[in-house]
């Protein structure tokens, strides 16, 4: 397993005890020109396979394209919005998550399917960070084009696009993205996200 590396500016300020792969997970736009070995990719997807889901439905599916298959990679890249294509084309792996809309055991709507797909992607991202890679999720893609080009059945809802690879230097992205790439990571305080039993009432921690 590769050592976790992260630029100093991306080092988060967390309370003691947060696991290192969570602390060191971030969403770079710069990736090294280094392929992700098949066994590493398999490990990332295996981690995602073991994420939690309602009724153990496991509604998430991953569509995956690697740069060593130029046709598939170009197809996946083409569904991203142009601004995302500018930097994501350098990633060695592109993915798209989708979630099955209905439960398989009774075919009723699964209102949690995108929640569970998100949990699978989060698990993959944490596993990636623990292995020296990073996964950058994106909402900026053409849903209609993705459904057509990637032949996604209508009983699946589209989730997020993802770029995966080994993070590179700030200079590795187009100039328009460098300020964001070099900016410190920030999060809203816990008092604004963790409430007691009444919404908006900060949880006493």
Report on the structure:
The chain is an alpha+beta fold and 205 residues long. The chain contains seven helices and four strands, in the order ααβααβαβαβα. Strands 1-2-4-3 form a four-stranded antiparallel beta sheet. The longest helix has 18 residues, at 113-130.
Describe the secondary-structure layout.
Blueprint (H helix, E strand, L loop, with lengths): L19 H4 L14 H12 L10 E7 L3 H9 L3 H7 L4 E8 L12 H18 L3 E5 L4 H7 L6 E10 L12 H5 L23
Antiparallel strand pairs: 1-2, 2-4, 3-4
Helix pairs in contact: 2-5
Quick description:
With 205 residues, the protein is an alpha+beta fold.
Short descriptors:
205 residues; alpha+beta; four-stranded antiparallel beta sheet; globular
The coarse overall form would be globular
**Approximately how much helix is present in the residues?**
25-40%
Distance between the termini: 35 Å
How much strand?
A: 5-15%
Helix/strand structural class: alpha+beta
Q: H/E series, N to C?
A: HHEHHEHEHEH
Radius of gyration, whole Å: 18 Å
């Amino acid at each position: 397993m590769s050592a976790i590396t992260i630029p100093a500016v991306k080092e988060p300020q967390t309370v003691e005890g947060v696991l290192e792969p969570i602390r060191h997970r971030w969403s770079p736009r710069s990736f090294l020109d280094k392929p992700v070995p098949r066994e590493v990719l398999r490990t990332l997807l295996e981690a995602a396979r073991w994420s939690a889901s309602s009724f153990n439905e496991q509604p998430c599916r991953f569509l995956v394209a690697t740069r060593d298959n130029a046709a598939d990679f170009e197809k996946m890249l083409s569904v991203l919005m142009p601004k995302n294509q500018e930097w994501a084309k350098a990633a060695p792996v592109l993915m798209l998550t989708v979630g099955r809309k209905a439960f398989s055991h009774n075919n009723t709507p699964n209102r949690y399917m995108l929640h569970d797909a998100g949990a699978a992607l989060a698990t993959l991202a944490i596993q990636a960070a623990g292995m020296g890679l990073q996964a950058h999720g994106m909402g900026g893609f053409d849903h209609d084009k993705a459904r057509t080009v990637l032949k996604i059945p209508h009983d699946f809802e589209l989730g997020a696009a993802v770029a995966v690879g080994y993070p590179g230097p700030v200079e590795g992205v187009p100039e328009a993205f460098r300020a964001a790439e070099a900016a410190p990571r920030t999060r809203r305080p816990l008092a604004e996200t963790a409430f007691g039993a009444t919404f908006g009432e900060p949880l006493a921690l």
